[in-house]
């Protein structure tokens, strides 16, 4: 029987690239995202590879009842899940005082609670089987504190803590937990991102600045992260830093003050 993987945020970017890679590796797929049309497009690409049709289930992972239904339907179809890949997320940039409480909830409810909901729903199944893999997509922003990304870094540092805590507790029970730490990725994560600033001009400047960075050919692609996820699953790694994230973490360890100063200069825009 083929192994089965459940991927959140599977309709675009990293989630889509990961779905296509795991399909090529012989996995049956359970794909979820908020919108069915994007999932169906990925499902067609999977089938074009000669792979079985994935199970596609629209789900808002910030809603625990929807996640419970997602897991129930996945287990009804396949009987078991081998790998959970938590990928759905939202980026946020701007001066910290410009974020409303609703903005904070948008970021943390998806980036952290979305992960907690899927883990909570699927963990009893893993514990019963005494096996399973949980992959949490964090970020270099979950290891290196970055000015003007405070809500995002807060959520990703929390994901790092969640991941490492789960590793410490679940490894003796046969469950493998892996954290993935990319830097900026050339994908369409900008679409649901939250940008805040002193005024509309500042907000647009932040969007334009990030778009310019993403056009740099050196920026990693979703496929690079998908390969890192596969490496973590196949080789039972506790964490995988993707490409330039290794440099960012190493530089921060050696020169933390300088890196934070450089980040402030690059991202402050109109902020004084």
In short:
The chain contains 9 helices and 9 strands. With 272 residues, it is of the alpha/beta class.
Question: Could you report the average pLDDT, rounded to the nearest whole number?
Answer: 94
Largest sheet: 7 strands, parallel
Number of strands: 9
**Classification by helices and strands:** alpha/beta
The CATH fourth-level homologous superfamily: NAD(P)-binding Rossmann-like Domain
Oligomeric state of shown chains? single chain
Beta-strand fraction estimate: 5-15%
* CATH architectural grouping: 3-Layer(aba) Sandwich
CATH classification, class level: Alpha Beta
- The end-to-end span amounts to 59 Å
Question: How much helicity do the residues have?
Answer: 40-55%
Your description of this structure?
The chain is of the alpha/beta class. It has one domain: Rossmann fold. It is about 50% helix and about 15% strand. The protein contains nine helices and nine strands. The strands form two sheets. The protein has a seven-stranded parallel beta sheet, with helices on both faces. It has a two-stranded parallel sheet with strand order 5-8. It is globular and about 60 Å long. About 45% of the residues are buried.
Write the layout of secondary structure elements.
Elements: E1 4-8, H1 13-24, E2 28-33, H2 36-48, E3 55-58, H3 64-78, E4 83-86, E5 92-93, H4 101-129, E6 132-137, H5 150-170, E7 175-181, E8 194-195, H6 200-214, H7 222-234, E9 239-241, H8 245-254, H9 256-267
Parallel strand pairs: 1-2, 1-4, 2-3, 4-6, 5-8, 6-7, 7-9
Helix pairs in contact: 1-7, 3-4, 4-5, 8-9
């Amino acid at each position: 029987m083929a192994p089965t993987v459940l991927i959140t945020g599977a309709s675009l970017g990293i989630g889509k690239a990961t779905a296509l890679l795991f399909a090529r590796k012989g996995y049956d797929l359970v794909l979820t995202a908020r919108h069915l049309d994007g999932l169906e497009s990925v499902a067609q690409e999977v089938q074009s590879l000669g792979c079985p049709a994935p199970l596609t289930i629209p789900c808002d992972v910030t809603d625990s009842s929807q996640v419970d239904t997602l897991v129930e339907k996945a287990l009804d179809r396949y009987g078991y899940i081998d790998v959970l890949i938590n990928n759905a997320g939202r980026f946020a940039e701007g001066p910290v005082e410009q974020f409303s409480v609703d903005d904070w909830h948008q970021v943390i409810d998806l980036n952290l609670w979305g992960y907690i909901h899927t883990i909570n729903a699927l963990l009893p199944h893993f514990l019963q089987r005494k096996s399973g893999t949980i992959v949490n997509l964090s970020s270099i922003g979950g290891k290196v504190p970055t000015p003007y990304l405070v809500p995002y870094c807060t959520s990703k540092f929390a994901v790092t803590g969640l991941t490492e805590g789960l590793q410490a507790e679940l490894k003796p029970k046969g469950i493998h937990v892996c954290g993935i730490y990319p830097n900026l990725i050339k994908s369409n994560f900008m679409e649901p991102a939250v940008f805040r600033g002193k005024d509309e001009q500042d907000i647009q400047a932040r969007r334009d600045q990030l778009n310019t960075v993403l056009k740099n050919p050196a920026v990693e692609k979703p496929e690079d992260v998908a390969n890192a996820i596969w490496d973590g699953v196949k080789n039972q790694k506790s964490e995988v830093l993707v490409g330039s994230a290794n440099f960012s973490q190493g530089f921060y360890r050696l020169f933390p003050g300088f890196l934070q100063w450089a980040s402030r200069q690059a991202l402050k825009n109109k902020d004084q």
